[in-house]
Amino acid sequence: MFRKRPDPERAASAVAVVVEGRTIRVPAGASAAAALLLAGVGHNRETAVSGAARAPYCLMGICFDCLAEIDGEPNRQSCMVTVAPGMTIRRQHGRRVARVASA
Ligand code: FES
């Protein structure tokens, strides 16, 4: 479905991120969802009830099928997060408890 095209100009502006413990380089400005797809992990989350595999669908913040753990914070819509150097992205397994920010 998605294919990675080699592009020398993009390679020069690539960002190193850690996906499922493996460091990969992705184009600067790409989303964390794109990084998961480029890493070839297959799916980025499993549903809380049945454990069904899910992968990014809309890539524009509507479906929530791209939920992932980013820099240790679960329930992030990975399609809405731009990669940053050293960012850690992990697949999300089942339900996670949302953190509540203190005032
Ligand atoms: S892919 Fe649909 S909200 Fe991210």
Shape: globular
Count of helices? 2
| Structural category | alpha/beta
Strand element count: 7
Low-confidence stretches are none
Q: Tell me the fraction of residues in β-strands, as a range.
A: 25-35%
Estimate the mean pLDDT confidence. 88
Main sheet attributes: strand count, strand direction, barrel closure: 7 strands, mixed
Q: Give the helix proportion (percent range).
A: 10-25%
* Rg for CA atoms: 14 Å
Order of helices and strands: HEEHEEEEE
Q: What's the end-to-end separation, in Å? A: 44 Å
List the bound ligands.
FE2/S2 (inorganic) cluster
What are its keywords?
single chain; about 100 residues; alpha/beta; seven-stranded mixed sheet; 7 strands; about 15% helix; binds FE2/S2 (inorganic) cluster
Would you kindly provide a brief summary of this structure?
The chain is built from 2 helices and 7 strands. The protein has helices at 8-12, 32-39, and strands at residues 14-19, 22-27, 45-46, 53-54, 67-70, 73-77, 88-93.
What can you tell me about this protein's structure?
Strands 1, 2, 3, 4, 5, 6 and 7 form a seven-stranded mixed beta sheet that branches. It is globular and about 40 Å long. A hairpin with a 6-residue loop joins strand 3 (45-46) and strand 4. It is built from two helices and seven strands. It has 103 residues and is an alpha/beta fold. The protein starts with 7 loop residues before the first helix and ends in a 10-residue tail after the last strand. The longest helix has 8 residues, at 32-39. Helix content is 13%, strand content 30%. The structure holds FE2/S2 (inorganic) cluster. FE2/S2 (inorganic) cluster binds at residues 33, 56-59, 61-66, 77, 79.
